[in-house]
Amino acid sequence: MNNKISERIDWQLIFYLLVFGIVSCISIWSAQSSGQYGGNFVSKQIFWYVIGTGIIAVMTIFDTDRYRKLTWYLYGVGNFSLLVLWLSPAKIAPVINGQKSWFRLPGDITIQPSEFMKVLFILALSKVIADHHKKYSEKTIQTDFQLLFKIGLTLALPLFLIMQQPDLGTSLVFLAITAGMIIVSGISWKIVLPIYGLVAAIGVTAIALVLKAPKFLQETFGVAPYQLGRIYSWLDPLNYQTSEGYHLTKSIRAIGSGMLTGKVNTDEGIGNRQVYIPESHTDFIFSVIGEEFGFIGTSFVVSLFFLLIYHLIKISLGTNKDFNVYICSGVVSMIAFHVLQNIGMTIQLVPITGIPLPFISYGGSSLMANMFAMGIIFSIRFHHKNYMFNSTKDLE
CA dist 57 to 14, 15, 374, 396, Å? Predict the structure, then answer.
């Protein structure tokens, strides 16, 4: 049975995105008042939200079966764009902050292909896992290792190309997406737990070597001094507050000075922050929220992300296609890691990486990619009613 169009639209998700848009514009308006840049980032962010809304509207029209059929073409286009970016001259792909991650288009517009590749990668992994389970209805240790190998192959090419930029933050997002989707892929925990345990052990060992044997890392693995400095400044930011720890110490002071209700309740009002943080409209937007609106404001933002993730999980549990379940899982993994990493780095929980806060940080590529992902979610929700009363679950 088909329900009315209005009943098939996910109004709750629309509400969340609307609130995110309002929070984003208010926060960016406060951030740009610091005077680091002369442009009006709020109007640009509104423009990207309007474009993103159009992307969602178009993508909702098509069922995810269409996206499944186009997955490998889209995956190929995404990898090709990363390859072209790697090989392009500085005039087309300039090095910004030590990274060659953006195409520069006429009109001073920049596009970051890796942001869109995240979503295309989720589609590719979803197809790999769904097709594998369709082929092997009976699970064995051997088939689980085969699936793990396929997932690794799908990850290898985009991860390699992104590391050439080099962009460690985005690479970590790809690894987080992969880790999240492996958990729901049905691979035996006898395989998954030892692998995750090994990864955790490698991480702990790497930090220990940074602290105890930095020369070994430099001589053996070619680790640069500035990379070691990021770890040192993370663990002891006050001793590095004039260099690598500058952003972190400023962020902690900004969030701490906001206290319970923030400085918006003072006589000076919103937009008169006292702690200057470079690039606060992008990666450190959460620090702006903390200073302006205090613990109450930051708690509201965290709760909003929790509600969004919870809603996406409900959609994944309610869909009747395995392919859709894996897509939802990948999107949840992507957003959750972005939120944990971005907020965590502003309060010294994790080292600083250039990862934006979804739907709130300024950035056209980041916002378009997230809206692209939401468009697929809207499609899942919109077309789900067509199969709602089937007596059996479509395992494809």
Answer: 11, 15, 10, 26
CA 121 – CA 175 distance, rounded (Å) = 11
Distance (Å, whole) CA 372 – CA 144: 31
Secondary structure class of 96 (helix, strand, coil): strand
Instruction: Report phi then psi at 353, rounded to 5.
Output: -135, 160
Give the residue from 23, 7, 1, 6 showing the smallest Cα distance to 361.
23
Give backbone dihedrals phi and psi of 321, rounded to 5 degrees, phi first.
-130, 130
Is 116 in contact with 173 (CB distance < 8 Å)? no
- Which phi and psi angles does 103 have, rounded to 5°? -90, 135
Find where tokens 């691979």 sit: 187
Q: Residue 184 pLDDT > 90, yes or no?
A: yes
Q: How far apart are CA 304 and CA 111, in angstroms?
A: 27
What is the Cβ-side half-sphere exposure of residue 138, based on CA atoms within 13 angstroms?
0
Contact 16, 311 (CB under 8 A): yes
Using only the alpha carbons of the chain, give its radius of gyration. 22
pTM confidence score: 0.91
Q: Read off the pLDDT of residues 189-200 as tens digits, 9 standing for 90 and up.
A: 999 999 999 989
User: What are the extents of the domains in the chain?
Assistant: 5-387
Is 393 exposed, middle or buried (CB count within 10 Å of its CB: 0-12, 13-18, 19+)? exposed
